[in-house]
Structures are given as C-alpha cells and as structure tokens.
TrEMBL record:
Entry's EC annotation: 1.17.1.9
Name of the protein described by the UniProt record: Formate dehydrogenase major subunit
GO BP term, pick one: anaerobic respiration
GO cellular component, one term: cell envelope
Enzyme class: oxidoreductase
Stated family: Belongs to the prokaryotic molybdopterin-containing oxidoreductase family.
C-alpha cells in the first residue's frame, strides 16, 4: 500500500483536513436535488408547542392550506429553536390520517360510537356539569361553611399551557370544585 495508505483515507483525518464532512465527499446527485420542506411554504406561523407548560416556540410551515413542517423557533427565548421528541413530532397532531375530526359519543351501555355535532356535545356536557353540581353541592360540612362540590374534579394534562391551566382552575373554582390537579405537577 502506498505511503499514508489507509491512514490517509481514515474519515477523521479527511474531516480534519476539510476533505469530508459537508464537502464533496458527503454529497451525491440525490443529496444535491433535495430541498427543505420549508422552502416551498406559502406562509409561516409562530406557535407554541401544545405538549407541556414549558411553552417552546414553534414555526408552522404551510403550503396550500396544509401544514408541511413544524420546527423549533430559533427566536423563542424559551427554547431557542429546540424541541423535545414530542414537540418535534407535533406535526402528526394535525396531519395524521387517523386524527379524529368529529365528536364521538358512546351512549350508556352502547357498543358503537356515533358522531355528534359540537353544539350537541357541548350542551350535553353543560347539562351534566350543572346537574352534578346541583346534586352534590355542599353548603356546610361539619358545621363549617364550605360551599363546594365533591362530585366534580379535574385532572389536567401536560398538553395544557399555563394560560389554559389558569382558565381551568378559575372555571373549576367557580363551579365549587376543590379537587383540581394537573398531571404535569404530579
């Protein structure tokens, strides 16, 4: 083998000499033909990752009314362009073909799901919340004024941001519920 033989072809030495890495040694015609998904976007919207209360910034790239890519926002003071694995995969929330786009309801003792319009589902929820509050209301407990219901509780999830958690706490407190917790804190 010629002088320098295998050592001169060693990838670390080629990279140190500038002959490899992102230069011609790592390129191909196929690589050169590739274009970023963000290049053809019609618009870019700034958003916040929905997975936890950290509030990592996201850039949402849209082409022809469809989300084509979601990336970390480098201008975000919270995440500085970085996303955790869940945040990096959040495009699936809006583009996955299995995403539910209807309210599904299964009647008591039923075996099948049925689609409901949003107004009907919201009316059903409101009626049940008000009925439960009315049936479980405690004005007093052991001689003390408590004004509460033990029939309503909330366990929030990590997909809620700080603002949503704040509003949930206000809603449940106004209803008289005292069992309000969030799984992100547990």
């Amino acid at each position: 083998m010629a002088q320098g033989g295998w050592i001169s072809r060693w990838p670390v030495l080629r990279q140190l000499r500038g002959e490899d890495g992102r230069s011609r040694a790592a390129r191909s015609a196929r690589t050169d033909a590739l274009r970023p998904r963000t290049e053809q976007a019609d618009s870019v919207a700034r958003s916040v990752c929905p997975y936890c209360a950290v509030g990592c910034g996201q850039l949402i790239y849209v082409k022809d009314g469809r989300v084509t890519q979601i990336e970390g926002d480098p201008d975000s003071p919270v995440s500085r362009g970085r996303l955790c694995p869940k945040g990096a995969a959040s495009k699936q929330l809006v583009t996955h073909p299995g995403r539910q786009k209807h309210v599904l309801y299964r009647r008591p003792h039923g075996t099948e799901w049925e689609a409901l319009d949003l107004d009907t589902a919201m009316d059903m929820i409101a009626e049940r919340v008000l009925r439960t509050r009315r049936q479980t209301w405690q004005q007093e407990h052991e001689g003390k004024t408590v004004r509460r219901t033990m029939g309503i509780a909330s366990l929030g999830g990590a997909t809620l941001d700080n603002e949503e958690n704040y509003l949930m706490k206000k809603l449940y407190t106004a209803l008289g519920a005292i069992q309000v917790e969030n799984q992100a804190r547990i």
